[in-house]
């Protein structure tokens, strides 16, 4: 029996605090009392049967000819957002659980800047937390103002990922370093995804200079050729981060502490339902109003703890901006650069609560 979530909790100021929200999508019809549709077209909303637990799940479909609503460039956007009455007071602890999977035309390369779920707080330009699917790799990012960090991913070595991010964090954000990192990413993707092309057009030393097995002299030579500072460590470690879109957003310091659990990767959503649980407690030590303390995030996937995150999360709240202390709000669906084919983001069993005990119970686990 699924637990019944309670009604909105009202704070002394009258604002909704971590409102309960529960949707199993079994009616095969969107409940507009729970979701807003300003960033999705009606033909992009379908339902698939059966769902993760019940009779149906919602399916957000992005087809080749689809445009995006509220896009700033040539992108495809089809997202549903929680209604404002369910937004918590910003700074409150909120728990979320949901299941999702990805089907259809799913490119393993070229699928850059693909957001498949996000939390946005007051003042955020990029989401404070985002589920992403770039170049065939499911990963989760956290933002410290304009600087981004991967906190979990579906494949690879978490320690190597942290090393690469730390090295990028030591770089100064300037045009030379941005162009160098973009060039390094292009070379790495060509060497892995088109090895015959790289053999024909690039020297063997160039291709061997990237990756953890690279000779120090080769890595240093490529680093110098690209105009990067240091002794080549970034060149040899960058491969573990090369899948991300916009690698320049990882340049510079971020006050984000990432503690992975037991070297556990995220599941691959192309292989079946992935059950996610998030604990989100927003905050920053440099806020001029609102929650003036470190933010906290804990993430579970398929019943296993994946990572804990602590630090300055989201955008700094400045008194002059005077953003309302509401959110973060949650969105799911697809937001990406235009790609061919039909992409299906199936979503089910959503629950939001101030406590983990208040989340709706899921059916049998993996």
Note down, in words, how this protein is organized.
- With about 375 residues, the chain is α+β, with helices and mostly antiparallel strands.
- It has two domains: about 240 residues, Jelly Rolls (Sandwich), CATH 2.60.120.200; about 70 residues, no CATH class.
- It contains six helices and 16 strands.
- Strands 1, 3, 4, 6, 11, 12, 13, 14 and 16 form a nine-stranded antiparallel sheet that branches.
- Strand 8 and strand 9 form a beta hairpin.
- Helix 2 crosses helix 3.
- The longest helix is centred in the middle third of the chain and has 19 residues.
- It is globular and about 60 Å long.
- The N terminus is likely disordered.
- Keywords: Signal.
- InterPro entries: Polysacc_lyase.
- This is Polysaccharide lyase-like protein.
Task: Quickly list its features.
globular; 366 residues; 6 helices; single chain; alpha+beta; disordered N terminus; 16 strands; seven-stranded antiparallel sheet; nine-stranded antiparallel sheet; 16% helix; Jelly Rolls; 2 domains
The rounded Rg comes to 21 Å
Q: How many strands, what sense, and barrel or not for the largest sheet?
A: 9 strands, antiparallel
The number of helical elements comes to 6
What would CATH call the architecture of the largest domain? Sandwich
C-alpha end-to-end distance? 18 Å
The share of residues in extended strands comes to 25-35%
């Amino acid at each position: 029996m699924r637990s019944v979530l309670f009604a909105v909790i009202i704070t002394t100021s009258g604002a909704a605090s971590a409102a309960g929200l529960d949707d199993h999508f079994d009616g095969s019809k969107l409940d507009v009392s729970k979701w807003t549709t300003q960033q999705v077209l009606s033909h992009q909303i379908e339902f698939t049967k059966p769902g993760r637990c019940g009779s149906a799940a919602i399916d957000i479909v992005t087809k080749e000819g689809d445009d995006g609503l509220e896009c700033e460039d040539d992108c495809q956007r089809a997202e549903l957002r929680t209604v404002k009455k369910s937004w918590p007071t910003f700074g409150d602890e909120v728990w979320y659980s949901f299941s999702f999977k990805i089907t259809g035309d799913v490119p393993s390369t070229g699928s850059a800047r693909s957001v498949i779920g996000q939390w946005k707080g007051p003042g955020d330009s990029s989401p404070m937390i985002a589920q992403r699917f770039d170049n065939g790799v499911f990963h989760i990012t956290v933002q410290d103002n304009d600087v981004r960090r991967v906190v979990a991913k579906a494949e690879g070595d978490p320690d190597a990922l942290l090393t690469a991010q730390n090295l990028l964090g030591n770089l100064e954000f300037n045009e030379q370093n941005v162009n160098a990192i973009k060039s390094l990413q292009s070379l790495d993707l060509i060497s892995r995804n088109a090895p015959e092309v790289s053999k024909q057009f690039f020297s063997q030393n160039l291709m061997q200079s990237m990756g953890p097995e690279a000779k120090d002299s080769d890595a240093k030579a490529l680093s110098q050729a690209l105009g990067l500072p240091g002794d080549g460590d970034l060149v040899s470690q960058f491969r573990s981060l090369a899948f991300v879109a916009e690698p320049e957003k990882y340049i510079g310091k971020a006050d984000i502490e990432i503690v992975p659990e037991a070297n556990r990767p995220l599941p691959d959503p192309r292989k079946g339902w992935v059950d996610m649980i998030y604990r989100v407690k927003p905050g920053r030590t440099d806020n001029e109003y609102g929650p003036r303390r470190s933010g906290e995030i804990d993430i579970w996937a398929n019943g296993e703890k994946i990572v804990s995150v602590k630090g300055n999360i989201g955008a700094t709240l400045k008194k002059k901006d005077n953003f309302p202390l509401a959110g973060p709000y949650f969105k799911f669906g697809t937001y990406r650069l235009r790609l061919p084919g039909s992409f299906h983001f199936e979503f089910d069993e959503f629950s939001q609560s101030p406590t983990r005990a208040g989340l709706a119970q899921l059916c049998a686990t993996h």
